[in-house]
Amino acid sequence: MKNSEVKKSTSSNPDHASTLKKLFPIGKTLRPLFQTLAPELEVDEDIVLKSINMDDARRIFDLVDANRKHLEAWLSWIQKLQSVKDSKSFIRAIRYKDVFAGRWVYGIYYQDQLVGMIDFNDGDRDLNQVAIGYWLSHDFQGKGIVTRAARKCIDYLFKEKQVHRVLIKCATDNYRSQAVANRLNFNWEGIDRDAGTVNGKSVDMINYGILYREWLAMNS
Ligand SMILES: CC(C)(COP(=O)(O)OP(=O)(O)OC[C@H]1O[C@@H](n2cnc3c(N)ncnc32)[C@H](O)[C@@H]1OP(=O)(O)O)[C@@H](O)C(=O)NCCC(=O)NCCS
Q1: Which of 10, 36, 137, 163 is most buried as measured by Cβ atoms within 10 A of its Cβ?
Q2: Rounded to an integer, what distance in angstroms lies between the CA atom of residue 114 and that of residue 85?
Q3: What is the pTM for the complete model shown?
């Protein structure tokens, strides 16, 4: 029997497919695992943060696609996300095992609707620090969603993950993002020249940081 015939007979046989699902219930076993590693974070009555997984691929692509112009102005990776397949590759690169390794990404749900994402990136285990990044669908700006979501994430990083320093990095002319860092009382720590790319052009990036002891002093 040729390979193509084997494939055909397997995929067109519903009994075989359901036997496979019973033997390897991947969705059912992985979902609780994700949830343990990246627990759902309830911000308030309107906002919940849920770890992104493969089931979200289409939803993420649709949201990014509808907001392409708004997001491309500040996030270089948006250009790489041109299809649901790209969305799946993006999700495959997420790592929930450790806040310092790779990317740990939450969907921001506002009144049960996915409206953006917030992530942990650029982790450094030796320095015990993590950066947070975020974006919102254009029409959901101006409601304090990201400030509230970021406050919850920072609290989680400091109190549950024993992180020492949290960073926010944003382009020198990204005033809305700078306003988020300022609202959260981050310190302006300096500028890295040509440290980011936006629309193929190098941009200067501001570093904002906050230490655990500063966060505790402000939030106790
Ligand atoms: C950066 C970005 C997430 C900021 O969004 P935002 O809506 O301005 O930020 P927030 O969700 O925290 O909302 C703050 C606004 O809500 C208002 N607000 C209402 N209720 C609030 C509350 N409970 N708490 C805080 N702010 C509140 C604030 O006054 C502020 O209003 P303003 O825009 O008139 O100043 C958004 O502009 C975006 O996605 N930009 C494109 C992607 C991007 O640049 N990402 C960052 C890369 S570094």
Answers
A1: 163
A2: 19
A3: 0.87
